[in-house]
Amino acid sequence: MPSPIFPATLVRFPAQVEGRSAAFYLAAEEFVARELPEGNYAFFWQLGPTCVFGRHQDPSVELDIDFCQRHGVELVRRKSGGGTIFADEDNIMVSLVTGSGSVEDIFEDFARSVANGLRTLGVPTRVSGRNDICLDDGRKICGGAFYHLPQRNIVHCTMLYDTQMELMRGCLTPARAKLESKGVKSVESRIGLLKDFLPFGVAQLREELAKILCTDEVCLTPQQVARIEEIERPYHDEAYIFGSKNYATDKHSAQRIEGCGRIEFRLSLHEGKIQHVDVAGDYFETSCQPASEAFSQALCGLPLTADAITTAIRTRQPHRTIRGLSEEKAIALLTVNIQHSTIKL
């Protein structure tokens, strides 16, 4: 099936840009989406040791932060959903910026095109689950994520050519439920490495992927790089990286849902009524509206009862902002252990 996205236009950076922080390249995605003409653009980048975690994740849960800091591993929060990844110089990061359209179709085409590209290079790959490219034996070699900007979609993935396994092991502390859902006992047993299938190094792999996925190219100017650096600055703010909790959590429920990811609902209450809803986890959002905002709009001011929450979810449909979350699952998770009458606090 022909791809509606690829071949894309390759974005090239000035030579001195190579090896910047993940925050720079995430900002570059925003720059391309906001300021380059309409079209589909792709670029490839590599990092020093870095952990990049999803927009809605708590890094203190996903990472051993002390270990990361002791070993000089940079911590970066991205604006897409999904889980935490470890990357180093032997990983290739792929960024894609497209026009508006169905995120399901775009994400599927992106994953299929990357998997097919790797197959042409001799790697036995297939698309698996909600956001993974795996070897035929099921081991993961590439995971992707996406988010929306007005009239544009941003998709990115991390491709494992090789990695510093000891450093990865020390940084990541994945939830046991996630590993068990994949039928594995550790991060290492879940992943595969492209170096085991290719006769060349990571630098050539990067060039080969560019040839497969792109035809023409655009070279950014120093002035455009300076604009990217302006967009980059907020990514380094500690409040953005580590999050700030402005609301106490009076009710907490969490579950890993197949095809959706881990969802955590954190509700703050006042006099038995819902005051604020925060949604955390490694899920993907399907619109520009944040899921926390959608659920807060639907539930704030309501009594904490199963009946009130059920009616609001069915009427307002806030679960549609989360990929793969059904109405029934959202209701079940929000109403677990809640009586069918207002709780007195």
What does this entry look like structurally?
By secondary structure, the protein is of the alpha+beta class. The protein has 13 helices and 14 strands. The chain has helices at residues 22-35, 59-62, 65-70, 103-120, 165-171, 176-181, 187-190, 202-213, 222-232, 238-242, 291-299, 306-316, 327-335, and strands at 8-12, 41-45, 50-53, 74-77, 85-87, 91-99, 125-128, 132-135, 140-149, 152-160, 214-219, 251-257, 261-270, 273-281. A hairpin with a 2-residue loop joins strand 13 (261-270) and strand 14.
Q: Describe the strand arrangement of the main beta sheet, using strand numbers.
A: 7-8-9-10-6-2-1-11
**Backbone CA Rg:** 21 Å
Specify the overall morphology: globular
State the major sheet: 8 strands, mixed
Order of helix and strand elements from N to C terminus:
EHEEHHEEEHEEEEHHHHEHHEEEHHH
The percent range for helix content is: 25-40%
Tell me, rounded to a whole number, the average pLDDT: 91
Structural class: alpha+beta
Give the low-pLDDT segments.
Answer: 340-345
Report strand %.
25-35%
Terminal residue distance = 58 Å
Number of helices: 13
| SS elements, strand count | 14
SSE diagram, text form:
Layout: E1 8-12, H1 22-35, E2 41-45, E3 50-53, H2 59-62, H3 65-70, E4 74-77, E5 85-87, E6 91-99, H4 103-120, E7 125-128, E8 132-135, E9 140-149, E10 152-160, H5 165-171, H6 176-181, H7 187-190, H8 202-213, E11 214-219, H9 222-232, H10 238-242, E12 251-257, E13 261-270, E14 273-281, H11 291-299, H12 306-316, H13 327-335
Parallel strand pairs: 1-2, 1-11, 3-4
Antiparallel strand pairs: 2-6, 3-5, 6-10, 7-8, 8-9, 9-10, 12-13, 13-14
Helix pairs in contact: 1-9, 12-13
